Amino acid sequence: MIQVGTRLGASDMIIWKNFVFNVFKGLLLLGIISFPFCSFCQTLPVSNQLMQDFFRIKQLQGEVDSNISQNLKPVSASILKTQFDSLGISYTSKNVFIGSDLVFLKVLPFTIDQQYNSSTSYGWNDGLMIPAKGYQQFISGGFFFKAGPLTIQAQPEFIYAENPDYLSGNNRTATDRYMNFISLSGYGADLPAYYERKNFSTVALGQSSVRLNLGPISLGLSNENLWWGPGRRAALIMSNNARGFRHVTLNTIRPVLTPIGSLEGQIIGGRLENSSSTINLTKNQDWRYLSGMVFNYQPKWIPGLSLGLTRVFQIYNTDIKGFNDYIPLFQSFEKKRTKEDAKRRDQLTSVFAKFIFKEAHAEIYAEFARNDHSINLRDFIQEPQHSRAYLFGFQKLISAFEVDESFLISAEISQLSQPLNRVLRSAGTWYVHEINQGYTNGGEVLGAGIGPGGNLQNFEFSWLKGLKKVGIQIERFEHNRDYYQVILDREDNFNEQWVDLCAGLVGSWNFNNLVVRGKIAGIQSFNYLWQTGIDDLPQRNQFNLHANVGLSYYFK
Questions:
Q1: Average pLDDT over residues 478-507
Q2: CA 488 to chain centre
Q3: What average pLDDT does this structure show over 39-55?
Q4: Is 523:501 a contact under the CB 8 Å cutoff?
Q5: Taking residues 412-419, what's their average pLDDT?
Q6: Under a CB-based contact definition with an 8 Å cutoff, are residues 550 and 113 in contact?
Q7: What CATH code is assigned to 38-451?
Q8: Does the CA dihedral 15-21-24-30 come out positive or negative?
Q9: H or E element at residue 473
Q10: DSSP state of 230
Q11: Sequence spans of domains, the chain
């Protein structure tokens, strides 16, 4: 994946090879010593939103170890085994073919997701699925193999999308103008409005990985989706909005307990690809190298509090000149110390926090991120809001009719549009800086699915009983406000913003090892595609029906 021989000098290459050799030698020695003590290390995929939410609720109820922050996903399924057993679902047991503690093989859950949009594309945090109108189908399954410290998780994914072209007439005119902005301006990114291939289908590695697991540490090659941070509906730096990408990972698989508290972390290096619908062919079409890290700390003296830091860099493969370009994660946060302007390299960084109120069965959380270096400390102190994005939210459980029932109230706000100081000092738009494709993989943003300049407010009220859930969800989604402010420049006419109001029903139900989940929602778009005010096009309000039904079967 990393073409070291073509980018490094001879001495650098020798150092790199010696480093890799010594790391693997040490890991193998440690693997022999810790062979009997390795955990299963099968992961709970980020795409399994139902289970992710379930274990987060169980933590609020005090039934999941509070040292497991759930701010770094995927989480190792083995540390959640007790809760799977309570559901009567086999997720980590050795249930097929081979049955010893050191060597076993098991079948992973089989999943089918079906999605439908009646008139426009809508939806995010859906991995391999694409933004499209019409019908889509997602299928996933596979196996998990363990032999001592070695684990292989093969969980490929397949999608089929009807993907009809829904852009015509006034829509086409407005879309062409916006995509010209996306393609050519300094605010752009590789985010095609239409994937240019009817009946789109593809097969991907999905949530697959090969790992050496040594005590609490795992080293491996993976294509899994990652989720960093405490957000539920959005994550500013890393989410499952885009498809998974190939990466090397060194991460903890369970919290590391120390005298000052528990630690979790991950360091990755991977490859990002362009979409098949890249708009401007004059852009650099090379693949991009992504390096990233996330660390989470839970102080021993403040139970329930978790604090975190993330940082990612991306650079074109053709711009990699030495070893430091592969691991720039620990360089200064001050631009004046890094000579960053001399390289076509983007960075994103964030800090986050979550606090669980154990007695109140509630949590609050927040994440604050920057899309650009500050020049120096003085610059950051004067304008900390420059190139910022943020999210915050809460969840609260209320006792319901029976002991094992509860009501959930949750809300989350994500803000990615530029702050007011854009008038004097524009920061561009989020996920875009020096790299023309923006912070994307396969034509979708790796972070928050609302995309550059987007703002989202989400509210949910649900009845819960185990995996059973019935609730309502309301959202307000403001599309790329930076485009509205900077290009349309019509701040005195708020009817010209593109805003979606979404209201729908969400639910899930389990029948032994079969789990069914679904969502049906109506989305009213006001001034769809910013059509009002552009060449006197008539205002366009549009309604879209969004439906999703998923089935997962957990083998015994």
A1: 80
A2: 30
A3: 82
A4: yes
A5: 91
A6: yes
A7: 2.40.160.130
A8: negative
A9: strand 468-478
A10: S
A11: 38-451
